[in-house]
Amino acid sequence: MTIPDRPALPPRDRIIDAARDLFRKHGVRGIGVDAIAEAADSNKMTLYRHFGSKDDLLITCIEKAASEAEAFWVALEEAHPGDAKAQLRDWVKRAGDFVTVDHCNCELIDAAAQLVESDHPARRVIEQVRRGQLRRLTQLCRDAGIAEAELLVDALTLLIEGARVNWRSAGEGGASTRFVDAAERLIDSFATQQRVLAVG
Amino acid sequence: MTIPDRPALPPRDRIIDAARDLFRKHGVRGIGVDAIAEAADSNKMTLYRHFGSKDDLLITCIEKAASEAEAFWVALEEAHPGDAKAQLRDWVKRAGDFVTVDHCNCELIDAAAQLVESDHPARRVIEQVRRGQLRRLTQLCRDAGIAEAELLVDALTLLIEGARVNWRSAGEGGASTRFVDAAERLIDSFATQQRVLAVG
DNA sequence: GTCAGATGTGACCGGCTGGTAACATTGTCA
DNA sequence: TGACAATGTTACCAGCCGGTCACATCTGAC
What we know:
Chains A, B: Keywords: DNA-binding. Chain A is an all-alpha fold.
């Protein structure tokens, strides 16, 4: 157990890392603070000195995931400066990895979606992060010349959320590995704008 | 509280109905047997006389949802006898309602997916039900003349699971209302078979 | 009426979990 | 060395929850 490969990290960071990992694997409700502290090679008391409550820890995790998502967009722009179409194509591929690689931090968001009590303090943060992501992706689609950018983004949202859920329940052999293919087809459909009811 | 509009239903059925509703809303982990019994206008003891454990109740709920899904396919065949293309088009529309209407029984399945412990007794049932659904949908696509039926089914799976998750977390205003549009575009794409990398 | 089976009621147990208190340990800086 | 802050350890509390027990109530069949 524990994470012996980064001894230099202070307890607070180790706790956040462990919490993100375990929240992802077991759900927010499925893991206890004791287990988180132990996995972080720390203890419950230190956890509560840094985070006032389990919810507080959860929010911190989400915020860290959000800041990493920020880096995602920066990398996209740096890889294809000024080329929105290339960025969109690259976005699909990276999102595909993002979903199927085990280190998928966004999974935090739907782990937290289990908190159906809509007044949960984490919901606000989650909504804010999600809105930011959607705004950026919509702008990217628009820059890439997609007319109905909002529609495409909604469709891509369904695909990516479905892929995350499916990955967690079905794993390697599941449908989530087809995310990239499906996303590219949708983008094609919106880019060419030729909607015929081909079936029937 | 309680469900006063069906007094004739025996306690066992009321408990199943209440459990499905509450599992859906709060997740399997988020609701207690006491609350289920009370919502069913019954009590915990009667619950445990009919179901050996909470897990047992969960499995019964999933099985009932599965049998209703069976009725779904029967209705589809009756509505368009022998016309696979029409059935596929209708499937999309019905699945769209299925997802966005609050009475979405399939949500049980991903509520149960929170049970990440892979040895949970409900997992077996869930996997079995899911496989059956996929098989039927694949056959329908094939009958409708889709060559790469498995690929299309995987893509539709992602869409529908994403729509369910998104509906729960975002509701009316969310992306899940675009499910039908996205699904039709995907079907078009697979039916016409003309995949050009239109973007870029 | 009465008998049996199903249902309802309240109390209870044990384990887990979020959270706290008190004290011990370590490490660092002067 | 001494002092201080951060961290670790142990024990504990309270509440919730899955599950059980003993007993009361109801209902329909005969």
